[in-house]
Write a structure and sequence with these properties.
Layout lengths: L2 E2 L2 E2 L10 E3 L6 E3 L1 E4 L8 H13 L4 E3 L7 H6 L2 H4 L4 E6 L4 H15 L4 E6 L5 H7 L5 H10 L3 E7 L5 H11 L4 E5 L2 H4 L4 H14 L3 E5 L3 E3 L13 E2 L3 H14 L5 E3 L7 H9 L4 H9 L13
Parallel strand pairs: 5-6, 5-14, 6-7, 7-8, 8-9, 9-10, 10-11, 11-14
Antiparallel strand pairs: 1-2, 3-4, 12-13
């Protein structure tokens, strides 16, 4: 085998990857979604090696965003050679129509493609932002235009914060998005009101045959001051047993979830892929995570 940055070009065995239907978009997406935020500040060589490892591991769903540094450019450098092998999603963070339309077209240029499989309104994490993007001259209008002109097949909404499931549920009431990308991990599940809000969102997703994806599966806590070791804005789990527990808890404990976005750090990708292939019982995963003190495992979102 040839050693690559952060992983192997292939496993010593055939990759084991589960695939789940992405709602009415119909794509059989790998349960691990390649989180291309990890490419925001790496060299092209590192990006190429990470992408090659992801594809060899069975990942067929790529998620990036206009605001992820150089991510779109890093993907675009080689994307034409493997475009038909993946489901490609990007995001637009501008809030008004004109700026959003310009951003969408820049993303297509950077990615060197003429079509997306999914275009998402990015970081819709407050009621104020939801109001802005769904206003008559908001970013949603630009996203709808992109779909009407054949630039994307699907439209989605994403976001962070403890209120994200509630905000995204209201977003689905205002517009019939094809997908939702919202946070979920065992620690968030214990935040007052979060589990109920997530269940309500999941029910609405199922009712509309939409796709439900999650982020922050291996988020451990906010970075302690002066201890940032990875590119992620939060401290992730980096021990294999904790990553395996966190991934297992989401994927096996929540079959309504289509997939989880991998962490924004290339050095963690191999461990996340291994966790998916070697998932453990949900009860064991919960015991491993629930046993951590709040100083060791806390929500990464401010109250």
């Amino acid at each position: 085998m040839t050693r690559l940055y952060g992983g192997w070009t292939r496993w010593p065995y055939d990759p084991v990857m589960e695939y789940r239907r992405l709602g009415r978009l119909g794509h059989a997406s790998s349960v691990l979604i390649y989180g291309a935020a990890s490419l925001g500040a790496v060299t092209q060589d590192v990006a190429d090696a990470s992408i090659e490892f992801a594809l060899a591991s069975g990942i067929n769903h790529i998620d990036t965003a206009a605001s992820y540094g150089d991510s779109e450019e890093r993907l675009g450098a080689t994307l034409p050679s493997w475009r038909d092998r993946v489901f490609l999603a990007t995001k637009v963070e501008e809030r008004d129509y004109e700026a959003a339309w310009a951003s969408i077209n820049r993303s297509l240029e950077r990615l060197r493609t003429d079509r997306l499989d999914l275009l998402q309104l990015h970081n819709v994490s407050s009621w104020e932002i939801l109001d802005r993007v769904t206003a008559p001259d908001g970013a949603l209008r630009a996203a709808i235009r992109a779909r009407e002109e054949g630039l994307t097949a699907g439209l989605g909404i994403t976001g962070h914060t403890h209120d994200a499931p509630r905000i995204h549920l209201e977003g689905l009431r205002r517009f019939d998005f094809d997908t939702v990308l919202t946070p979920l991990n065992e620690r968030l599940w214990r935040v007052e009101g979060f589990a109920d809000a997530f269940r309500a969102l999941a029910a609405e997703v199922r009712a509309g045959d939409r796709g439900l994806m999650t982020i922050k599966a291996i988020a451990r806590r906010p970075w302690p001051e002066g201890e940032r070791r990875y590119a992620t804005w939060y401290e992730p789990f980096d021990e294999q047993d904790a990553i395996t527990a966190a991934v297992s808890w989401v994927l096996d404990g929540h079959p309504e979830v289509t997939g989880i976005a991998t962490a924004g750090e290339t050095r963690l990708l191999e461990r996340i892929v291994r966790a998916e292939a070697q998932r453990i019982d949900v009860a064991a995963a919960e015991d491993r995570l629930a046993g951590l003190a709040e100083t060791e495992y806390a929500s990464v979102f401010a109250d």
